[in-house]
Amino acid sequence: MKFIFKILKDFPKYLFSGLTSIASIFLFIALWDMANQLYGTLVLPSPKETFITLYELLNDEIIYGEIKLTIYRAFYGFFLSLIIGTILGVLAGFFVTASIMSRPIVTILVGMPPIAWIVLAMIWFGISDKTVIFTVVIASFPIIFVGSLQGTRTLDSDLKEMAQSFNLPFKMKLFDIYFPHIFSYVFPAWVSALGMSWKIIVMAELLSSNSGIGAQLAIARSLLDTPTALALVIIMIGSLLFIEYIILEPIKREVESWRD
Length: 260
Fold this sequence. Notes:
About 85% of the residues lie in helices and about 0% in strands. By secondary structure, the protein is mainly α.
């Protein structure tokens, strides 16, 4: 509980540190408006038109159901890959043979394009939630696995020997030595995998589902409704930024405070 209260107490500081990011967003919107004037509304609607469409979408109860469905699929697949990738990565990091054997498998998983996995998943599972979730898991797993593996493999051997020579309790070694170091590698991998999950889920829904934000994007594409397509993209980006900077970033700073 003390950990949660400290995060809430320091929340204004975290929010202030994101002001530079907000400034870059406004710069992006200005460039966006210039591009609209150059290429026209059909190619790139103006920010004003897009945000009006966004407002209309958010006043439609149906879109909230589609957003919830996409979030459910994305997080279900992400948490599956998080659990499996973290556990297997840490285990592989402690055993050299497992680490060497896993390299070609990870290379194949990283090198295979997500679109190929979507096609295979459609053959295996058909048009269903399983296709979308499987694609998220298979695309996110290598990122988390490699982060966990590197975090475990790069543990300072001298530090481990010191802990053993002083007969430190297992709890102290786990939370004061092993966990902070491994987490410094694992957490960025989680954030990267979350971003990957969000991108993959929309592509998978667009190609293999008739529900979710991706399916709504497919409808907007077929109708050449660019403002709606951009409004849906803003919803996806806003959701991801909220999760990363409002939820994950404060936790990361608190857990990594030992670096200071």
